[in-house]
Amino acid sequence: MSTQPLLQRTANKRIALPVRVEPKVAFANERTFLSWLHFTVILGGLAVGLLNFGDKVGKISAAIFSFVAVGIMGYALYTYHWRASSIRKGGRGPYDDRLGPTILCAALLVSVIVNFILRFIEGN
User: Fold this and answer.
1) Integer-rounded Cα radius of gyration of the chain
2) Which of 35, 36, 20 minimizes the C-alpha distance to 91?
3) Following CA atoms 34, 40, 42, 47 in sequence, which dihedral angle do they give, to the nearest 10 degrees?
4) Contacts of 115 by beta carbon, 8 Å cutoff, 6+ apart
5) End-to-end CA distance of the chain
6) What CA–CA distance (Å, rounded) separates 40 from 77?
7) What is the pLDDT along the chain (124 residues), one digit of tens a residue?
8) Neighbours of 27 (CB within 10 A)
9) Cα gap 60→113, rounded to integer Å
10) CA 120 to CA 124: how far, in whole Å?
């Protein structure tokens, strides 16, 4: 019998193996992008409704909501392309973004607060 161990260690050699990314990761990226676009369509519909049936404050709020919707569309497109290129390059992730949704929710909150403030100022 041999006195050497069954599994011998090599001298810290790294073996490059291709990383296989499953197709469900790319489909999840596309599904997330479409979800963000669905939200922007709803927000844009709210802006159009305010624009058509609102007074001066409604039109100002419609403009603010439209800018927020366009900003969300831009964020969604940028994030989609960033994740898609990371997936194609075989990146290991994580593919999440914690700063973007926080900023977008804050922008939406500010636009709703501005809408309420303008409505109360006009009422007085």
Assistant:
1) 25
2) 20
3) -160
4) 57, 61, 64
5) 97
6) 12
7) 566 556 556 567 777 666 676 788 889 999 999 999 999 999 999 999 999 988 899 999 999 999 999 999 999 999 999 999 988 887 777 878 888 889 989 999 999 999 999 989 987 6
8) 10
9) 13
10) 7
